[in-house]
């Protein structure tokens, strides 16, 4: 137990130091300035009510200020300001009658929560509106009319926007640099995990699960960087800074693809590494060094003179090339097969090294020729645009919609919390409501985790606050501690909710310590209100129209299979026609990685549901894993044909691609329950076709022939292309059988 506490404190302290250097911390300081300035001016000039209203408006607009393009940030804050102004006007009538307040609370919270239908940024705008609604119970302006108060709240939102724009002018590159270098660091972690997978003794299932999560995080960060870099405004001409960062992002995206490409078939790989175990460490050490260099680049940030050198990596490559070359001289069929496989694996690592070198060069003070920059019109095609049409809202007005059920559940839970708070005469009933909107989320796992973290964080914060209150009775000390706690709480809200809850509790206790002498009562009620709010949130999800992941995951599997199918089609088309890689090819690749990432996230949510709701969990996990393996095999095929001169596509190639596509089509039809009589798969035919597929046979290679690099290159192509096609067909057949049994 003591070790767990020490570990929690150690991790929390490291995270705290990390966040003090982050843009989240800067944004938190900005929020404090936006809140304190109008409040201080209002108190000093005798217009306290006006200062409080502007202060609230600034604070409520803070959640919508999230990472992304400046244009989207501005729109988000403006929409938040408009929403909180309307909500504050409605909230002004909450104090006239309890029954009226209950009805307004239910209807308004449902309507505001439904805004989340429009995506992540919209969900944060929705949260701003909910904050304004709940805190309407906490403050009643005596000297202002309701419409005046609402207008001043809106003005507070504009004040926050002005400060945000000013900060952007002062530090325009801060957000980009932080996300970019964090993405580089995470890519290093991904390479390290891939290197660990090479070892047969590793816990592959656990490593694969961690890899799925890392790939999801990286895909999200790639999208955020795309939005920031592509939609950023330039005052004039071409932005060299942005252009170079876009090229770095391209390297990172391709590194993710290459990392997923090899190894693919672990059974075959293990057999070769067992015969030649020295290659396991050689390949691992090479990948570990690349991972370490990426980690170092992420830590040093924008300091070109501290970039790691190529020396160690070059030595690793040279050692591997010599060993593989020696293996190629052995006149043995098994050795030749291992030589071909290791040579292919080495070439994939060389591609990673090329991307790493290119990235280091771009991040150094080198000039980039203007023709190397990518046309923004092409780049814009890679952005995911959010549809804001009214039909999205109408489509979600159904119990089939997760957002609709969440909105209804939240509204009813808030109404229950309101009744409980008033019937049992809690000191601050709105704290219960505030806890509910902070904890309750559309999925069970996050709601449960937040309930636990919020409760634990509040109790720990209460204990710490109690100790400080006993030792110190100075309002100035309370003011400083409240300010520090508030900044840290906001900084860590997205990353470590438990730690954020501790600091939120501390800031609230110290603020009340300034306003009233009986701080111990405040601490007791704060903990009690949190327990009631957390309990209602958890029970509300369990019994009020719950949304379980198994009801939605089939859609995610279908989307992922469809994206992989499109990617396969693009790869086959490129292999047939050769030439330059078309934009449609890259878009298909992006979509395949994105949908596979979404599927991993959906499965992760499913594992957090109660065991009774984890229907077909093992089969779903197998489907997720098969889908990941399918994408890895596609990536392997894609990289090889992009970077090598390949032979003409044969009729056999076209035939097997058609069969794989047919299998995937049946998988999608089965998942969507649209399969018709006569379309059912014939598994005997599937097995028969797989046995007929061509296979690279090292036994038939003339090992006594003179060394012929062209012949070896053909063998490499034959081994990789046909091995991947056999593997893709096998995976698609297994997926077909698995979905038929669901």
From TrEMBL:
Q: Which GO terms describe its cellular component?
A: plasma membrane
UniProt key word Cell membrane: yes
UniProt main location, coarse:
membrane
What InterPro entries does its record include? Memb_transporter_dom, YccS_N
A Pfam cross-reference name: FUSC-like
Q: Give the Integral membrane bound transporter domain ranges.
A: 417-537
Q: Which domain of life is it from?
A: Bacteria
**Plastid: is it a keyword of this entry?**
no
Residues spanning the membrane: 29-62, 74-90, 96-115, 122-140, 146-168, 407-424, 458-491, 497-515, 527-548
Write out the entry's keywords from A to Z. Cell membrane, Membrane, Transmembrane, Transmembrane helix
Location comes to: Cell membrane
In this chain the Integral membrane protein YccS N-terminal domain maps to 78-300
> What is the membrane topology here?
Multi-pass membrane protein
What does the similarity note say?
Answer: Belongs to the YccS/YhfK family.
This protein is called what? Putative membrane protein YccC
């Amino acid at each position: 137990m003591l070790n767990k506490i020490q570990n929690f404190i150690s991790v929390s302290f490291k995270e705290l130091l990390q966040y003090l250097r982050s843009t989240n911390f800067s944004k938190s300081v900005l929020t404090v300035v936006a809140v304190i300035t109008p409040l201080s001016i209002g108190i000093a000039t005798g217009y306290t009510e006006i200062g409080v209203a502007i202060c609230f408006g600034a604070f409520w607009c803070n959640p919508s200020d999230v990472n992304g393009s400046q244009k989207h940030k501005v729109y988000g804050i403006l929409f938040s300001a408009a929403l909180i102004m309307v909500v504050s006007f409605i909230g002004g009538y909450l104090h006239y009658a309890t029954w009226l307040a209950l009805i307004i609370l239910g209807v308004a919270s449902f309507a505001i929560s439904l805004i989340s239908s429009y995506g992540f940024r919209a969900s944060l705008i929705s949260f701003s509106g909910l904050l304004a609604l709940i805190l309407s119970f906490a403050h009643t302006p005596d000297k202002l009319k309701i419409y005046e108060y609402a207008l001043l709240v809106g003005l507070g939102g504009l004040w926050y926007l002005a400060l945000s724009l000013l900060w952007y002018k002062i530090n325009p590159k801060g957000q980009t640099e932080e996300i970019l270098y964090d993405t580089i660091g995470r890519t290093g972690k991904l390479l390290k995990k891939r290197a660990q997978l090479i070892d047969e003794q590793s816990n592959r299932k656990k490593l694969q699960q961690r890899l799925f999560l890392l790939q999801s995080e990286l895909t999200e960060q790639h999208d955020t960087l795309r939005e920031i870099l592509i939609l950023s405004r330039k005052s004039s001409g071409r932005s060299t800074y942005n252009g170079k960062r876009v090229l770095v992002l391209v390297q990172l995206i391709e590194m993710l693809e290459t990392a997923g490409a090899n190894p693919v078939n672990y059974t075959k790989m293990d057999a070769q590494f067992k015969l030649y175990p020295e290659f396991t460490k050689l390949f691992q050490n090479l990948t570990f060094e690349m991972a370490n260099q990426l980690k170092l680049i992420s830590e040093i940030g924008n300091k070109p003179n501290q970039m790691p050198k190529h020396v160690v990596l070059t030595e690793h490559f040279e050692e591997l090339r010599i060993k593989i070359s020696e293996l190629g001289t052995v006149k043995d069929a098994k050795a030749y097969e291992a030589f071909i496989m290791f040579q292919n694996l080495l070439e994939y690592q060389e591609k990673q090294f090329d991307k790493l070198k290119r990235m280091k060069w771009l991040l150094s003070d080198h000039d980039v020729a203007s023709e190397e920059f990518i046309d923004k019109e092409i780049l814009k095609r890679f952005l995911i645009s959010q549809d804001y049409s009214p039909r999205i809202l109408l489509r979600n007005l159904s119990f089939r919609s997760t957002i609709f059920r969440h909105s209804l559940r939240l509204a009813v839970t808030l109404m229950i919390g309101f009744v409980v708070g008033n019937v049992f005469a809690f000191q601050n009933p709105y704290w219960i409501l505030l806890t509910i909107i902070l904890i309750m989320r559309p999925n069970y796992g996050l709601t449960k985790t937040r309930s636990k973290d919020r409760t634990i964080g509040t109790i720990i914060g209460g204990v710490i606050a109690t100790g400080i209150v006993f030792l110190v009775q100075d309002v100035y000390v309370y003011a400083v501690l409240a300010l520090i706690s508030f900044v840290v709480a906001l900084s860590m809200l997205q990353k470590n909710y438990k730690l954020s809850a501790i600091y939120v509790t501390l800031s609230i206790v110290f603020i009340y310590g300034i306003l009233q002498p009986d701080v111990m009562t405040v601490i007791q009620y704060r903990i009690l209100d949190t327990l009631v709010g957390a309990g209602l949130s958890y029970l509300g999800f369990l019994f009020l129209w719950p949304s379980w992941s198994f009801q939605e995951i089939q859609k995610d599997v279908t989307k992922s299979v469809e994206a992989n199918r499109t990617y396969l089609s693009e790869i086959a088309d490129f292999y047939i026609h050769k030439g330059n890689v078309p934009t449609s090819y890259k878009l298909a690749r992006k979509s395949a990685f994105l949908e596979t990432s979404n599927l991993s996230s959906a499965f992760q949510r499913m594992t957090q549901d109660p065991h009774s709701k984890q229907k077909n969990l093992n089969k779903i996990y197998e489907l997720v894993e098969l889908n990941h393996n399918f994408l890895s095999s596609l990536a392997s095929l894609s990289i090889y044909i992009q970077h090598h001169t390949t032979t003409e596509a044969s009729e056999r190639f076209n035939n097997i691609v058609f069969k794989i596509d047919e299998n995937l089509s049946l998988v999608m039809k089965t998942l969507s329950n649209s399969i018709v009589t006569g379309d059912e798969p014939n598994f005997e035919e599937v097995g028969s076709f797989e046995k007929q597929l061509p296979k690279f046979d090292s036994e038939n290679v003339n090992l006594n022939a003179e060394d012929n690099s062209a012949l070896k290159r053909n063998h490499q192509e034959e081994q990789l292309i046909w091995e991947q096609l056999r593997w893709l067909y096998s995976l698609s057949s297994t997926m077909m059988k698995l979905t038929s049994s669901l």
